[in-house]
Design goal:
The chain is of the alpha/beta class. The protein has three domains: 60 residues, no CATH class; 180 residues, 3-Layer(aba) Sandwich (Rossmann fold); 72 residues, Roll (Ubiquitin-like (UB roll)). Helix content is 39%, strand content 21%. The strands form two sheets. Strands 1, 2, 3, 4, 5, 6 and 7 form a seven-stranded mixed β-sheet that branches. Strands 9-8-12-10-11 form a five-stranded mixed β-sheet. Helix 2 runs antiparallel to helix 3. The protein is globular.
């Protein structure tokens, strides 16, 4: 029986052949396993991929145990444990103002200076937005000379990309082009509001928002218009000013909108609503999805739920398939 391999599989296989590290090979193999057609003609291929994945994982694990400080440093750099509603990777050319942005929206103190390449390691920090938080990871500046392999793994693991550029800089287009080329050469596809069908659930494709910083500077309007002309049809672009605190709340809202998530709050019968730790779900999620996010066994025992929210009766009784919307309150009954 023919395998009938898809273009997505062949693309992942090509990336695997060109991968230079075990971490990159592992990511490519996992992608190949995800997109390979599931039928009798691919049984042996799937078994072979599983074996390769297992061997690479064992090799990486043994390497962590046997190697010294350099290996531990690399392991630290290429992984930041996720916290909050989503992990947002902050990228940009040197001196674009991304560390100043992170300081402003998270109240942390990253190292900031007027010279380039101040940020040398990934710096995670939490940004509050209404009743949730997003984890921002401030990355070292992106350039051909300084890009390192560990950055690729960290970018792949993020939920979304934000690229900060200096809209007052005369070389904005050149520096942004270089940033995008370096990321593309690392095998990562950046897209706008919508992930293409062939990349759904793929670690190789990331939604990307461009932040045009220093929008209030003298020559910024003209350069911003040029930026829109060159990249406005590829990525959403938002003008901000970290110095003047301009459009910062819009930046937070834009991330929430692009992630296409909703917040659902829970309450126990006879108790008050818990607004501190909402369940984060994709748009279109149901009561059953909310229950599964708590625990699979809990979802299996669920009989019905009551919901409160916009366009609903207070305490409206609903089935497991009822679709939730942002801000809903749910009370589970088992």
């Amino acid at each position: 029986m023919p395998a009938n391999l898809t273009p997505q599989y062949k693309e992942a296989e090509e990336r695997f052949r060109n991968a230079s590290t075990d971490e990159e090979r592992l990511a490519c193999l996992e992608e190949m396993m995800r997109v390979i057609p599931k039928h009798k003609g691919t049984e042996k291929m799937r078994a072979d991929i599983k074996t390769r994945i297992s061997k690479i994982k064992q090799k990486l694990e043994s390497g962590k145990k046997s190697r010294g400080g350099g290996a531990r440093r690399t392991s630290y750099l290429d992984h930041v444990e996720k916290h909050g509603a989503a992990q947002i990777i902050i990228l940009g050319p040197p001196n674009s103002g991304k560390s100043s942005l992170v300081k402003l929206v998270t109240n942390t103190e990253p190292e900031i200076a007027d010279y380039p390449f101040t940020t040398r390691t990934p710096m995670p920090a939490m940004m509050p937005f209404k009743t949730i938080q997003f984890q921002l990871v401030d990355m070292p500046p992106i350039s051909r000379e300084t890009y390192d392999g560990w950055m690729t793994n960290l970018i792949r693991n993020g939920d979304m990309i934000v690229i900060v550029v200096d809209v007052s800089a005369d070389d904005l287009l050149e520096s942004l082009d270089e940033t995008l080329e370096v990321i593309r050469d690392a095998g990562i596809v950046l897209t706008g509001e919508t992930i293409p069908e062939e990349y759904q659930n793929s670690v190789f494709c990331k939604k990307t928002l461009i932040l045009a910083n220093k929008i209030g500077e003298e020559n910024a309007p003209d350069i911003f218009q040029i930026l829109q002309e060159f990249y406005g049809d590829k990525f959403p672009i938002l003008g901000i000013s970290v110095l003047r605190n301009r459009n910062i709340e819009q930046f937070k809202r834009r991330i929430f909108e692009m992630l296409k998530i909703i917040r659902v709050y829970t309450k126990s019968p006879g108790k008050e609503v818990d607004y501190k730790d909402p369940i984060i779900l994709p748009i279109g999620a149901t009561v059953e999805d909310a229950a599964v996010s708590i625990h699979k066994d809990f979802a299996e025992k669920l009989q019905y739920a009551k919901v409160w929210g916009e366009g609903k009766f207070d305490g409206q009784r609903v089935t497991n398939s009822f679709q939730l919307t942002d801000g809903d309150i749910i009370e589970f009954h088992i």
